[in-house]
Amino acid sequence: MLEQHVFTIPMRTRFRGLDVREGVLLRGPAGWAEFSPFWDYDPAQSLPWWRAAVESATTPWPAPRRDHVPVNATVPAVPPERVLEVLARFPGCTTVKVKVAEGGRSDPDTVAGDLARLAAVREAVGPGGRVRVDLNGAWSLPDALVLLPRYDRAAAGLEYAEQPCGSVEDLAALRRKVEVPIAADESIRRGNDPMAVRRLQAADIAVLKVAPLGGVRAALGLAERLDLPVVVSSAIESSIGIAAGLALAAALPELRYACGLGTVGLLGADVVTDPLTAVDGHLLVRRPEPDPVALAELAAAEPVRARWVERMAAVRRLAGDEPPGAPA
């Protein structure tokens, strides 16, 4: 039986359309885990998240190869005048991921806002900082061919562009025609055939997230098969969920890029007293435990709790699991 706690955490800034982050913490023989698929995911899409949480709660993680992991700052789709405020939450981070094309838009006003945000980030980090953009598959191939060079110029050089187009085929075509390196995210974690990214030579970098890929070991195995440089990223989890991403990043044979695991700074609170926040641009590889007081303060109201109970029941039916216990 896994002990469970449903939580609700406010976001500091609206991110991915979210003002609050909800989920369930599980405790098993191996430690604490998090189950927090986004609400636009159906039970089938949520199933890997459940498997990842059960693995983390019941099975020790692979042995680490490093004790610190470099992380990037994350700048949501905020006006340029708020960039410094956001970056202050990520002390010592010299790599910045900037969310652009918010809501999948490529209209002139959105593009102008993106370009201003990128210029503000470059001014903040200086010429030695690294700037990357995340598009969540927002652009068509024709738009990407026109816009990506403009974004590259606004940032005075992009480290890479994450999932600029939705399809693997479009990523491959774009990669052959632009100088900006291409990273694949959704094409790996949401595609029916993640290995198509390698077969079509569609990306220079693989972005891997533990929960959507079914756990630390599943993600580690996929990284080996893809044979691309890996950036481990979060799904905007609490420190309990981030710890699983850290376990993956720590276990990789090679880690060339800063990882997207510094996102606790986007949350207005956390379930632990010692959050996984960056120090000098790095996270210490460790596994914090929830604080009972924080759990009580962030406990979800009954309607939210009931919704998560129903959701877990649907996912467990797909998984063929017995109910692991009643959430608190």
What are the key terms here?
single chain; 328 residues; alpha/beta; Enolase-like, domain 1; TIM Barrel; 2 domains; 7-stranded parallel sheet; 36% helix; 18% strand
Write down the oligomeric state.
single chain
Proportion of residues in helical segments: 25-40%
Mean pLDDT over the full residue set: 95
- Order of strands in the sheet with the most strands? 5-6-7-8-9-10-11
Structural class based on helices, strands and sheet pairing: alpha/beta
The radius of gyration is: 19 Å
SSE string, helices as H and strands as E: EEEHEEHEHEHEHEHHEHEHEHH
Name of the level-1 CATH class of the largest domain: Alpha Beta
Shape: globular
Continuous helix count:
11
CATH-level-4 superfamily name of the largest domain:
Enolase-like C-terminal domain
Q: State the low-pLDDT regions, or none.
A: none
Question: How many domains in all?
Answer: 2
CATH topology of the largest domain: TIM Barrel
Distance between the termini: 13 Å
How large is the share of residues in beta strands? 15-25%
Q: Just name the CATH architecture of the largest domain.
A: Alpha-Beta Barrel
Q: Kindly state the number of beta strands.
A: 12
Biggest β-sheet description = 7 strands, parallel
